[in-house]
């Protein structure tokens, strides 16, 4: 009997240890309503399907997620980090309040998606919207990021189109910027989430996507207007990253989310492009692609 109890206790201990090892924390790296949190929710659903217990942490920004990860460096955790935030951190080291969530070959689970930047408005006619935009004298809404990543993307986008007298206004989240567009508080918005714009009744008419890569028929490629524009192809690239995890198992769950989750599939249909391990690449090919994105910003002026 004593031997049976000992075996039972040992079995329970192993089961509890395995269960504890399968727990993963997920600090949100953005506010609700945006593409990043939608992707993390999709990832959470797949992790749970693969047998992980996921505890979300209500951090709601890259900065607070970064702080949580540093304070809990011994815990297994996953979150979402954009290539553009990482690039700005590299180009501008030591920036106050910098978001330093590691985006390295070792921490990279999967590139969730890349989505080209767009100019959007409530004007349904793409040609009319483009004419008004190029005439200048407008207000353009962007969303806040820790380093002003969206500001230099928007500024560069307009600089090489010679758009005069345009004022950039920053909003705290994707939902706020869309509310401003619908209310007429801004003339245009600059963002990658074309699916959210469409859902609100707006239209994205100009895209940084190269010719032939735009996702919606009314979109005009930046390359069509200015073939040598260095901002062609600029996008937001979101990545699932982690610490203290079983990379192989967690990556399987990430690939499942990318290829099967309805929210992810809708993003790919409307505005995002599938790259990385979710598209059948090896982890090495995925990391090489991100390194190429890093290099692509090397000759651009990243002015605030």
What is the count of distinct domains? 2
**What would the principal axes of the Cα set say about the shape?**
globular
| Derived structural class | alpha/beta
How many helices? The count is 12
Name the CATH class of the largest domain. Answer: Alpha Beta
Note the main sheet: 6 strands, mixed
Give the strand line-up of the largest sheet: 7-6-8-5-9-10
Give the SSE string: HEHEHEHEEHEHEHEHEEHEHHEH
CATH superfamily of the largest domain, called what?
Answer: Bordetella uptake gene, domain 1
Report low-confidence residues grouped into runs of 5 or more.
1-21
CATH architectural category of the largest domain: 3-Layer(aba) Sandwich
Number of strands: 12
Helix fraction by DSSP (H/I, runs of at least 4):
40-55%
What does this structure look like?
- By secondary structure, this protein is an alpha/beta fold.
- It has 2 domains: 2-115 and 236-296, Bordetella uptake gene, domain 1 (D-Maltodextrin-Binding Protein, domain 2, 3-Layer(aba) Sandwich), CATH 3.40.190; 118-225, D-Maltodextrin-Binding Protein, domain 2 (3-Layer(aba) Sandwich).
- 43% of the residues lie in helices and 20% in strands.
- It contains 12 helices and 12 strands.
- It has helices spanning 2-21, 35-49, 62-71, 83-91, 126-135, 149-159, 174-183, 194-199, 222-225, 247-260, 262-270, 283-296, and strands at 23-27, 53-57, 77-82, 108-116, 118-121, 139-143, 167-171, 188-191, 203-207, 220-221, 235-243, 272-273.
- The strands form 3 sheets. A 6-stranded mixed β-sheet has the order 7-6-8-5-9-10, with helices on both faces.
- Strand 1 (23-27), helix 2 and strand 2 form a beta-alpha-beta unit.
- Helix 2 crosses helix 10 and helix 2 (35-49) packs antiparallel against helix 11 (262-270).
- The radius of gyration is 21 Å and the shape is globular.
- The protein starts with a helix and ends in an 8-residue tail after the last helix.
- Residues 1-21 have low confidence and may be disordered.
């Amino acid at each position: 009997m004593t031997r049976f109890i000992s075996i039972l206790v040992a079995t329970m201990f192993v089961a509890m240890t395995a269960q504890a090892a399968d727990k993963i924390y997920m600090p949100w790296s953005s506010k609700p309503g945006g593409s990043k949190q939608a992707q993390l929710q999709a990832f959470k659903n797949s992790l749970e399907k693969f047998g992980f217990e996921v505890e979300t942490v209500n951090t709601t920004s890259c900065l607070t997620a970064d702080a949580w990860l540093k304070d809990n460096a011994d815990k297994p955790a996953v979150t979402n980090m954009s290539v553009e935030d990482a690039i700005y951190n590299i180009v501008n080291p030591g920036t106050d309040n910098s978001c330093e969530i590691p985006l390295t070959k070792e921490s990279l689970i999967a590139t969730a998606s890349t989505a080209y930047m767009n100019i959007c408005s409530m004007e349904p006619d793409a040609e009319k919207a483009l004419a008004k935009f190029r005439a200048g004298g407008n207000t353009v809404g962007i969303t806040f990021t820790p380093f002003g990543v969206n500001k230099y993307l928007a500024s560069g986008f307009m600089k090489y189109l010679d758009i005069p007298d345009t004022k950039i206004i920053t909003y705290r989240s994707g939902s706020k910027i869309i509310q401003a567009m619908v209310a007429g508080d801004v003339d245009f918005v600059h963002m990658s989430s074309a699916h959210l714009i469409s859902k609100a009744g707006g239209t994205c008419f100009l895209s940084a996507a190269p010719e032939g890569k735009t996702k919606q028929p009314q979109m005009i490629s930046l390359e069509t207007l200015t073939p040598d524009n260095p901002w062609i192809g600029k996008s937001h690239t979101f990545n699932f990253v982690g610490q203290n995890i079983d990379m192989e198992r967690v990556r399987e769950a990430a690939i499942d989310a990318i290829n099967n989750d309805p929210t992810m599939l809708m993003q790919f249909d409307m505005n995002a492009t599938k790259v990385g391990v979710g598209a059948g690449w090896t982890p090495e090919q995925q990391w090489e692609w991100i390194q190429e994105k890093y290099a692509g910003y090397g000759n651009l002026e990243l002015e605030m």
